[in-house]
Amino acid sequence: MAVFTAIILLMAVGVLAKLYHVSVVMGPDLIAKARERIIQERTIEASRGNIYSSDGLLLATSMPAYTIHWDSKVVSADQLSQGVSATAAILAQVEPKRNAREWRAFLRSQHAAKKRYILIAKNLTYSEYRTIATSALFKGDRFVTGLVKSVKPNRLIPLKGLAARTIGYSRSDAMVGLEASFNEVLRGHDGKRWMQQLAGAHWKPMESQFTSDPVNGSDLITTIDTRMQDVAHRALLKSLRRHRANHGCAVLMEVKTGKIKAIVNLGKTEQDSNYRELINYAVWERTEPGSTFKVAALMVALEDGVIDTATMVNTTGGLHTIYNKKIKDSNWKYNGSGGYGNISVARALELSSNTGIVKALYPHYKSQPKAFIDRLYRMGLDKRTDIEIKGEQKPKIPTTEDDNWYGTTLPWMMFGYGIACTPLQTLTFYNAIANDGIMVRPTLWEAVRYRGQITDRSDVEVLHPSIASKSTLKQIQTILHHAVTRGTGEQLSNEEVSISGKTGTSQLEYWDKETLGYQASFAGYFPSEDPQYACVVVVNRPEKSTGYYGAIVAGPVFKEIALAVNRMQARQVSPEGGYWATGIETKAKQRQQQETQVIQQAEIALASGQMPNLNQWTAKAAMALLESHGIDVKLNGIGLVKQQSTPAGQRVKSPIKLTLG
Amino acid sequence: MGLKQRIKQSSRAAKEILRGGFWGHPLVLRNLPFAGYLVLLSLLAIYGAHHAEDNVTHIDELKVTYDELESEYLESLSSLMTMGTESSVKRRTKSLGLIAADKAPIQIINHE
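YS: structure for the whole thing
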């Protein structure tokens, strides 16, 4: 007994000695290592804010993206042969870079080579991941199937494709669109916290005075209206497809505020020739605008008082020569029968006559080109809009000091060549005309919201208080209206909404016959009598055989947008003799009383366990009533209730089947 | 005291300790409830630490479930939003003979 006691005692002494050695001698080293591996100061990522449309829909949000790898060594040959075909078929659907046969061969070859950690698919949505993870080969625990998933945050644009480029993205290697411009607002601030690692790669937060909590990002509310965006997107896409164009854009802006309600940028992809949001052409692409610029040229002359709208001009068969260079009208003919004859300068603009505009304006500025240029500058046409999206180019307006200022520069400028601007800059100018001369900055953001509270709101920013005198603006507004009712934009004329605007057809790379192409555009606003929206549509390189004029290619897009947007605005009427005179209220009240009575009777019937008569009820109302009494409802068909499984007056038996029709 | 006697005394003391006789000492007996209380506290502390670790694991599992459910919700929301656009509704209801109104809605204003 004493010997046994001594042994136990010795062992205890040994344990104590080791304990002393571990804690005192080795202690500092071990603590340092433990701190490095088990106790770490870890980053707690802040949630990135969402982007919303002005009508409250989600435009961009964060959600996990799944990447899956496969450890083929875990899987037996039997397991593989049983599940490989079914899984290969599913993989071919989710990840079509390989067809089912190729996936089968790939999985088999990787298994034969005993490969580990093979990339199967990346950036999958949850449902895609689930589809793969529940397929025959990968169903079950990862230690049995070898399927390893990793998750990382990703951005989702729920309305796939709509305004995708303007919403943009924020990756570690590149940032574009609103995601880039409002990154500081959206990203929030990561937190830091000391954490202790537990078994199974779980991390337990530790109490520490050095903890900083993450501050989540704010939400951004944009000016984009998804209904208008959808309309503009479909209208532009239709035109691009019909005219087999290279790319195009359409921007819709609220006249008084500069809020952009829709911005579409569609370019043809190289892979499949479909149109997608690739580049923000509206903001970035600077081209010679062509005839849409004639409006600015005429405004300069009217402001300077060198002509008036009634000034007559001879379009000389649609051909005019300056310094041996020919200016032609679109209806010019070799036999000299083209042109528009003797017309007023206002009519020249309505008909978009190059010769008419140049012959009316050029003689007054030939000797003083600087006066023309300076007026353009004073109208603010040389400035960027500085919209929130990055990449906007500065408008190009030549000056007489430029090295490449020639005798033809000024007359060509008058019909939109030699100068260059972006579609958004053109729109801002036309918006100013619609806004009685007040040029406002286009904007894409409405407010910033943090935890449901608005913390910042955008204001209307005036770029130029008055680009021209009231009388000039009045005259231009009239001409732009006439350009649609009886000019080149006649196709846009309709009875529903009055449109004012100007067509534009410009040549691209006209110095080389091989690369020569066209750009069709239309800029304007609606309704003409009280402008609410300004819009620009630009279509780049439509196929010539399908038509390439602004009125044919861009005009219909503008018209479709204008009509659709007009239908979204409720027309307010106040009946003559007052509201009561119509009897509408009385009828509405009577109907409401009848409906209330029917619902009350149905409620009484259900309270006593009897089935009410739901014939001709809407499915929504019938469901709401029955479900509020705890009765399950099954619907079949579309429309109003036609039949009910339990007839009226009988005892209610859940579930009730309602046939609609 | 001789060496032999001192050894004898020490071995008696050691035997006494090994036999656990000290448990009957009045001082120990008097403090036994307090010792029991300390043991209970220690057990509670150990249970608390394990419970906290279980909670951390559970929270992590819930987070994964939450992320998955949120992903499912967002995917459904995305589909619903896409289906809810005017162009999609127009396309899908065409077969039912429904067409979009070609006139703006009228709102009656009562100025009385």
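YS: worth flagging: Residues 4 and 45 of chain B are 48 Å apart (CA to CA).
IM: good catch. Also Chain B has a mean pLDDT of 87.
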